[in-house]
Amino acid sequence: MDALECLLTRDSAGRLTAPGPDRAALETMLQAAVRAPDHGRLRPWRFLVIETAQREAFGEVLASSLRRREPDASPEALQREREKALRAPVILVVAAHLQHGHKIPVVEQLAAVSAAAQTVLLAAHAQGWGAVWKTGAPAYDAGVRTALGFGTEDEIVGFLYLGTKVGGGVAVPRPPAAEFTRIWQG
Ligand SMILES: Cc1cc2nc3c(=O)[nH]c(=O)nc-3n(C[C@H](O)[C@H](O)[C@H](O)COP(=O)(O)O)c2cc1C
């Protein structure tokens, strides 16, 4: 796919199914991601691949998180939470390894990791894979962070769900960029 066509046509997948990207396709996405701009060359991104066989274990992590947030959560709600892990054959967790007190502000470290995450979405699209970036409360739960092997300096920036798109994309309106753009007149 032409690079501009890729940039101008990316959208988030509504539903995803198998097959998911294999390790070679993922490797390409990650190599693209580490080209993201990165003030101070801190390399703040951390990636964790959850392959199909580990999704149920990840679902338990999500359910435990819900139980911590809502001790009275119903069995049905817990089951719905578990099933979120099955939304795609592969999940890429993108985290930021933050250096607090560094001369590069934390907001810039997060910006670099966000740029990396977006690059993963674009590199997925370029290879014909569907993708969607999700967070929700589990992304901000220290218990989830620990269960996934991240440290206390790490912040989860997104769960990128990757797989084969089912049907068309979500019809999200795309207002012209001009609506958000001004030419400074001095
Ligand atoms: C940081 C971040 C977190 C997001 N978290 C969620 C989420 O938890 N659930 C969700 O439905 N969409 C979430 N989204 C939005 C989707 O990824 C997507 O951008 C949105 O549905 C619009 O679709 P589009 O990407 O095709 O414009 C998030 C986006 C970002 C940038």
Would you write up a description of this structure?
It is a single chain. The chain has helices at residues 3-9, 23-33, 55-69, 75-84, 106-126, 142-147, and strands at residues 15-17, 45-50, 90-97, 130-134, 154-166. 38% of the residues lie in helices and 19% in strands. The model has no long low-confidence stretch (mean pLDDT 97). Helix 2 crosses helix 5 (106-126) and helix 3 packs across helix 4. The chain has a single domain, classed as NADH Oxidase (3-Layer(aba) Sandwich), CATH 3.40.109.10. The protein has 6 helices and 5 strands; from the N terminus they run αβαβααβαβαβ. It starts with a helix and ends in a 20-residue tail after the last strand. The chain has 186 residues and is of the alpha+beta class. Bound molecules: flavin mononucleotide (FMN). Residues 11-12, 132-136, 158, 170, 172 line the site of flavin mononucleotide (FMN).
Task: Give a quick rundown of the structure.
With 186 residues, the chain is of the alpha+beta class. Helix content is 38%, strand content 19%.
CATH architecture: 3-Layer(aba) Sandwich
Q: How many helical elements? A: 6
Structural class: alpha+beta
Report how far apart the termini are.
40 Å
Mean pLDDT: 97
What are its keywords?
alpha+beta, NADH Oxidase, 6 helices, binds flavin mononucleotide
